[in-house]
From TrEMBL:
<dbReference type="InterPro" id="IPR029510">
    <property type="entry name" value="Ald_DH_CS_GLU"/>
</dbReference>
<comment type="similarity">
    <text>Belongs to the aldehyde dehydrogenase family.</text>
</comment>
<dbReference type="InterPro" id="IPR016162">
    <property type="entry name" value="Ald_DH_N"/>
</dbReference>
<dbReference type="GO" id="GO:0009450">
    <property type="term" value="P:gamma-aminobutyric acid catabolic process"/>
</dbReference>
<feature type="active site">
    <location>
        <position position="256"/>
    </location>
</feature>
<dbReference type="InterPro" id="IPR050740">
    <property type="entry name" value="Aldehyde_DH_Superfamily"/>
</dbReference>
<dbReference type="InterPro" id="IPR010102">
    <property type="entry name" value="Succ_semiAld_DH"/>
</dbReference>
<dbReference type="InterPro" id="IPR015590">
    <property type="entry name" value="Aldehyde_DH_dom"/>
</dbReference>
<dbReference type="InterPro" id="IPR016161">
    <property type="entry name" value="Ald_DH/histidinol_DH"/>
</dbReference>
<feature type="domain" description="Aldehyde dehydrogenase">
    <location>
        <begin position="24"/>
        <end position="478"/>
    </location>
</feature>
<keyword id="KW-0558">Oxidation</keyword>
<dbReference type="Pfam" id="PF00171">
    <property type="entry name" value="Aldedh"/>
</dbReference>
<keyword id="KW-0560">Oxidoreductase</keyword>
<keyword id="KW-0630">Potassium</keyword>
<dbReference type="GO" id="GO:0004777">
    <property type="term" value="F:succinate-semialdehyde dehydrogenase (NAD+) activity"/>
</dbReference>
<protein>
    <submittedName>
        <fullName>Succinate-semialdehyde dehydrogenase</fullName>
        <ecNumber>1.2.1.-</ecNumber>
    </submittedName>
</protein>
<dbReference type="InterPro" id="IPR016163">
    <property type="entry name" value="Ald_DH_C"/>
</dbReference>
Amino acid sequence: MRRLAEPGLFERIADAAWLGRPANRETFEVFNPATGELLAELPDMGVDETRAAIERASEAQTEWAAQTARERSDTLWRWHQLIVRHTDDLATILTAEMGKPLAEAKSEVSHAAAYLQWYAEEANRIYGETIPAPSRDRRMLVIKQPIGVVGAITPWNFPASMVARKISPALAAGCTVVLKPAEQTPLVAGAMFALAERAGFPPGVVNLIYASDGDVVGRELCSHPKVRKISFTGSTEVGRLLMRQCSDQVKKLSLELGGNAPFIVFDDADVDAAVDGAIQAKFRNAGQTCVSANRLYVQSGVHDEFARKFTERVETLSVGDGFEAGVAIGPLIDTRARAKIEAHVADAVEKGGSIRCGGRRIDGVGTFYAPTVLTGISHTMRVAQEETFGPLAPIIRFDDADQVVREANDTIYGLAAYFYASNLSRVWRVAEALEYGMVGINTGRMSSEAAPFGGMKQSGIGREGSRHGLEDYLEMKYLCMGGI
């Protein structure tokens, strides 16, 4: 582990004393996927620790909700400032445990800080409403109150920004939180929680659970009656399971699940701009993003030009340890992720696809795979049907504009979509026809704390970010006052 700017910060990560001493002495290990280096041994918590954290959160809930909006805002703002001040520390931890290039890690930490800033401001804008009463002796109004204890489960691919995106609106609303980060990347969450303690959150408001078995913690969060809401980002399969586990209590859920994002290039597009956007949308975080471009549809009139220019750009992408200068693509999170890419490539080649570049693992200790471009792709291939979650770009030729929209929508997923076109009429028609919660038009990157993030169909329920993200943590209460 590289030395951090602040001595002692990393050691605080593994010291869970202020979060609640674990009931057992079991530990689990966290490794650097680029080097295989052991980074830390953390207490492996389970049902007992999760229940204790829920009880602490429940006890803290009343007082935290009773604070004024300005008081909660000020604490979030102090946390934001500490995150900004320790960007280099947090990015170093993030790159070590997740593998992404250091520049991307710093960008992610900045994105996390932006969510904290946004919801520090939104805490002061939780408004109710008055309703004209049907009689003179009544007054009718609506107030909004925090839903209560929130159980949050975050993924490994964006371990800093997902922490902030989930819990900052909860805290702004007056909820308390029990967070379980992914077992592959728990360290940056630990560092952020250490800074949260320093920011002055009262005991029990933010609670962290380290665990190698997410199922055990997830079941307890879903079944415990004092947890009023679950917020989860991860696979659709796990999302379905959490819905079933929450159903007996009709517990409120926010789910941000899998994607199968189409990236469409029409023949009136700026091809060079489309290539730039595709590189962003496909290869950021080595393609390990839920909004990653998974299917690249290119109209016949520009197909060959796009495929050539895109392949030339992909061949220049440097792969390696995220701490090395100039690296654009880091390792995959583990060997299973690499095996899935290899299976998709083999299936495509067997069914007539062609490898334009890449198509191979990179030898060495880390779980590296060369950024890959495939052409000659058909819908019978796994790569066109399944989310790859890696640096693999399949290009599908199309002729008919209406048909490509139907094919893009022919999936159970509906998280993100992208397209490039210049005709304004086409832009409006396609944007409205795509069955996705987010659509990037002539851009390959659209995430912002000010915009609602979330999907349709089996890509999830609810929205994160923007003013809409706050509503998921609030209950609406109607008050009718008589005898006025």
